Amino acid sequence: MQKVPFTEKRFLTTLIFVTSLFALWGISMTMGDVLNKHFQEVLNVSRAQSGLVQFSIFGAYFVMGIPAGLFMKKFGYKKGVLLGLSLYAIGSFLFFPAANAASFGFFRFALFILGCGMSTLETVAHPFMASLGDQRTSDQRVNFAQSFNAVGTLIGPALGSYFIFGVDNKGGGLDSVKMLYVAIAIVITLIAISFSFVKVPDTTDPHVTADLPTDGLNKDTAPDKPLFAHTHFKCAVVAQFFNVAAQGGTWAFFINFATEKMGFSNEKAGYFMIVFMAMMLAGRFLGTYLMTFISPNKLLATFAAGNVLMCLIVAQDLGWISFIALLMINFFFSIMFPTIFTLGIKNLGKRTQQASSFISMGVVGGAVLPFLMGLVAVHDVATAYYLPIVCYAVIFLFAWRFSAPTRQ
To answer: Nearest to residue 269, comparing CAs of 149, 169, 378?
Structure first.
């Protein structure tokens, strides 16, 4: 049997750039989790209210999912990337007046605009990456790119722990938050300007071409069938909702668990969050390798079952045993987002971009669970980790019963 290539030489430069985009929203995603704890102390908001940090970010995904997909469909991948980077930079710049006003509402608005940029980048980058080669290796490509998203999630808590906890623990203000996000905005602006001068080569998108000869490409196997008549797509939207709900809740209260149950300082807890994200990076690389001989849906089901067990252990409040289980949640979480995404868009042909928008909208789940976990965490943060078990059970059922659409 002929080995299916990871990508083609003509896609290599594009693949490298698109892969780099995955790190950008990873940085902001985990910075939000640091802000969650910081706002509790500096702006005197409750845990339930601090969960609205994630609501602002993930709510933007729900609002921006379809518009980003329509924009991408009309103007193409490059302009879609530039739109995402522009919104990302604007949201980051808005942290300057938000900090000056010391307004939690203003910060949430800035995070919403930033989240719209993140949503646009994700909507563009996932189908873009999946299209850069044979469809049979699309899961491997997206998981590979998501590994660099995991690198971004390492950088986020590192920056937050040093500049927000490390500095503000001494001064107690918002100046370091303001300056950090302005610096991020400047960097993103420079990236956007640089990319605007890049000539992206014309390539044939296998997602929108129905008559390409390569058997492994993402052909539409039922062109007369409505998008929402595809069971695998509908289930992927639901699974992604619960997946990001679990992620948002687990990440949002990691620092609370570390400080309350383990007795760590904010700064030390922030550095342990780097280890937490490193577990996800390790899981992504291992998962990408394992998919060369284990079907993606079966591996996804295994990892989901692992997280059901880890959440049960965390909720028992067993000291270091529970804390290690908390770290392992991110290891098992690692492959979930990209694998659900690529399973959901398989064999949808020209409707892949539209499907990507709806799957990205499923990210709104991350706006829901942090708030619910915050209500429980007011009484006991360990007990709050019972809630993600429902999410991982749904993901397990999606993966275990997944049936790829048959070819005509």
So the answer is: 169
Q: What is the pLDDT of residue 405?
A: 53
Please report, for the chain, how many H helices and E strands are present, in that order: 18, 0
Cα distance between residue 339 and residue 348, in whole Å: 16
Task: Give the Cα separation of 115 and 106 in Å (integer).
Answer: 14
Q: In this predicted structure, what is the pLDDT of residue 216?
A: 43
What is the spatial distance between Cα 224 and Cα 226, in angstroms, rounded to a whole number?
7
The two tokens of residue 52 are 């609205």
Q: What is the pLDDT of residue 390?
A: 95
Residue 93 pLDDT: 95
Model pLDDT, residue 213: 37
Q: How many other CB atoms sit within 10 Å of the CB of residue 229?
A: 10
Backbone angles phi, psi at 262, to 5 degrees: -110, -10
Contacts of 232 (CB under 8 A, 6+ apart): 343, 344, 346, 402, 403, 404, 405
Non-local CB neighbours of 27 within 8 Å, separated by 6+ positions: 152, 153, 155, 156, 159, 184
Contact 283, 331 (CB under 8 A): yes
What pLDDT does residue 332 have? 95
Q: CA 198 → CA 13, 79, 88, 127, 194, distances in Å?
A: 11, 11, 19, 20, 7
As given in the structure block, the two tokens for residue 335 are 């492959």
- 176, with CB counted inside 10 A (0-12, 13-18, 19+), is buried
The residue ranges of the chain whose pLDDT is under 50 are 1, 168-171, 203-204, 206-217, 406-408
What pLDDT score does 300 carry? 95
The answer to whether the beta carbons of residues 8 and 135 sit under 8 Å apart is: no
pTM value is 0.73
Token digits for 284? 């992504």
CA-CA distance, 194 to 405, in Å (whole number)? Answer: 40
Region of residue 347 (left: phi > 0; alpha: psi -120 to 50; beta: else):
left
Q: Which of these, 223, 228, 227, lies nearest to 408 by C-alpha position?
A: 223
Which residue, 290, 246, 236, 231, is CA-closest to 398? 236
Task: For the chain, list the domains and their CATH numbers.
Answer: 9-200+226-400 (1.20.1250.20)
Q: How far is CA 195 from CA 79, 81, 225, 260, in A?
A: 10, 9, 38, 44
Q: How far apart are CA 198 and CA 33, in angstroms?
A: 34
